[in-house]
């Protein structure tokens, strides 16, 4: 099967982006990736969280305007950190012939991490966009790691994560290549 990727944009919703660390930069990075993916004919799948504070139809639930999906793009609605759990994401990716997911979005240590790991378990290769995911802004003290530490930590974890027969790469957006290629074989790739 030829190598084919899809860009996943996770939970970039108004209420969540409003509390995000380096929100403007992350939105701009993902918007640039969206433009490049569209130009290359790569499918874009927008994932949208529903829940107590993210009621469908409300302004806070909506995807930020810069990343709003086009009419021809797939939107997957989820109710947990796992974008595959009780959703049609896997079926959608299989129908599109996708072999690798390029992951971006919010929040690094929750939905981005969970979805990335589940993608590997569902037998997809993975690109985690190092500067294309973020987490909530918070003080540098307390029980949570700072946003910068959390993002750096997860990028480093995925650089060293080993999944048999899966390619895992952590790349800055500028190095993400949407051109079709042959499948990556061998051990985990890193950047």
UniProtKB/TrEMBL annotation:
A Pfam family that the UniProt record links to this protein: Isochorismatase
Residue ranges constituting the Isochorismatase-like domain according to the UniProt record: 5-137
CDD domains: nicotinamidase_related
Residue runs in coiled coils: none
Keywords annotated in UniProt: Hydrolase
GO molecular function: hydrolase activity
The organism of origin for this protein: Streptomyces zagrosensis
Protein name per UniProt: Nicotinamidase-related amidase
Organism lineage: Bacteria, Bacillati, Actinomycetota, Actinomycetes, Kitasatosporales
